[in-house]
Amino acid sequence: MTTVAAASPSLRRLFAFFAATFSVLLLLMIAFHTGLDVGVSAHVLYENGGDRTQSAPHRKLLLRSEVEEPDRIWGDKCSKSDIVINQGPTAPLPSGIPTYTVEIMNVCVNGCDISGIHLTCGWFSSARLINPRIFKRLRYNDCVVNDGKPLANGRALSFQYANTFRYPLSVSSVDC
């Protein structure tokens, strides 16, 4: 039995050629299956009647977030969509209760200060004390922000609450 090193130069070249060809084919197969553009299209063309569409099963569509589009009439100063609410998890309390940070921002493009910001908040409660001048539940599904006072344009308020689950918060009304 002979080894490749002890074989003739032509046998070594043939072995190198097959190894290189196999490597290139393997890389092309991997690129094809992962959707990389290497000149070979992984898209499938479907024809439904006269309608032609392309499908790429490896692509993911981003879902549109629940952002309310402003429906302004020329001259309207502000709307509910000018208040943006972000919230996310933070480090839990020492007792293990999860905590969440909420940020409420005024992003009015007309430079307006917005007051009377009310949120839908269910039976909002927190194991961590929240300054009632920043955020307070008035009744079921009605919480007021900044004690009803104006939130200046470009400004944000934030607070943390602790509960076993995240409360869905959304703007229910504003005063312009």
Automatic annotation (TrEMBL):
GO terms for biological process: cell fate determination. It comes from the Eukaryota. Keywords: Signal. InterPro entries: TPD1. Pfam families: TPD1_C. This is Protein TAPETUM DETERMINANT 1. It comes from Escallonia herrerae.
